[in-house]
Amino acid sequence: EYTNRQKLMNRIYTSLNTRKYILSVTFIDPELRIDTVGSDTSVLLEGQAQQLYDIAFSKSGKASWITDSGTLLVCPVREVKNLSLRSMGAIVIRIQIDKLVQFTMDTSRLSENFLIYGSSDEILYQSGELTELPVQIISEKSDYTVADINGISSLIVRHNSRYSDWTYLYAIPNETIFSSFTKIRTVVFLLLSGLYL
Question: Average pLDDT over the chain, rounded to whole?
Answer without folding.
Answer: 77
